[in-house]
Amino acid sequence: MKIRVLGNYGGISLDTHLSSFLINDSLLLETGAAASALSLEEQKKIKDILVTHYHLDSIFGICFIADNLACVNSSVNVYCIKEVLETIKKHILNNEIWPDFTKIPSPENPTLRLKEITEGEVINVSRMEVIPVRVEHTVAAVGYILRDNKGAVVFSGESSPTNRIWDYAKREKRLKAIIIESAFPDSQEELARRSGHLIPKDLPRELEKLGNPNIPVLLHNFKPEYVEEIKKDVLKLEIKNIDFIEKDKIYEF
């Protein structure tokens, strides 16, 4: 499994780009940075998109990728649970905020195909097995178990402390990595709780639920204002096998 980091932040500035990952060149996981990080030729290779929730940082790039793909009569599948897809359709792809690319260039041959998935069910996407699992956030949200013939990766998406995804993760016999957020530093605990995010002091309790301290842990979704403080808080935890995801880096599992 090859994962290319298009962005690793929970906010946008000149040097920070929203968390977004390109898997094996054809599967996009989260879309915030995708349209600006990928060339037109790279965007044409995308066949499937996984989003975790309907906040803009997850779905932002869908709009502009669709705009580009419609020009070349290409299509892409967008997967998530029912609540998320319904909200995207109603509030974004409504011919007011953005054109309805589920009907462009035609309803029979649309640029975007919204594919409803069910929590806990295995689906085949871009030659991989994918399992959506509910996580705790301020809106309906999922993380994903991503599995190929070499192993599995857990992407917990954006969440506050949660349980269900760790139950699924423990069943993976060939788990290679955990990708988890740490959006705010410990000093911003109240803001993190109100916005449904994790802080460094949450990480030991979350990772303990997995029951395997040897699995590599990769952190992302940092709020740009607090990056250095987040890193200091994480280093104080002295958790082995933990690292900070880097933009443009390619991870292979």
Query: How much strand?
Result: 25-35%
Strand order in space, largest sheet: 8-5-4-3-2-1-16
Mean pLDDT: 97
The helix fraction, in percent, is 25-40%
Number of strands: 16
- Radius of gyration (CA) equals 17 Å
Secondary-structure element sequence?
A: EEEHHEHEHEEEEEEEHEHHEHEE
Number of helices: 8
The geometry reads as globular
Reported CATH architecture: 4-Layer Sandwich
Give the domain tally.
Answer: 1
Low-confidence stretches: none
As for the CATH topology, it is Metallo-beta-lactamase, Chain A
Q: Which class in CATH terms?
A: Alpha Beta
Main sheet?
7 strands, mixed
The CA-CA distance between the termini, in Å, is: 5 Å
Structural class: alpha/beta
- CATH homologous superfamily heading: Ribonuclease Z/Hydroxyacylglutathione hydrolase-like
3D structure, described in words:
The structure is a single chain. This protein has helices at residues 34-37, 40-44, 56-70, 82-91, 164-169, 189-195, 203-208, 227-237; strands spanning 2-7, 20-23, 27-31, 48-50, 76-80, 105-106, 109-110, 112-116, 123-125, 128-134, 142-147, 152-155, 175-181, 217-220, 242-244, 250-252. Helices cover 25% and strands 27% of the residues. 46% of the residues are buried. The strands form 3 sheets. It has a 7-stranded mixed beta sheet. Strands 9-10-11-12-13-14-15 form a 7-stranded mixed beta sheet. A two-stranded antiparallel ribbon has the order 6-7. The chain has one domain: Metallo-beta-lactamase, Chain A, CATH 3.60.15.10. The protein is globular and about 55 Å long. It is an alpha/beta fold and 253 residues long. The model has no long low-confidence stretch (mean pLDDT 97).
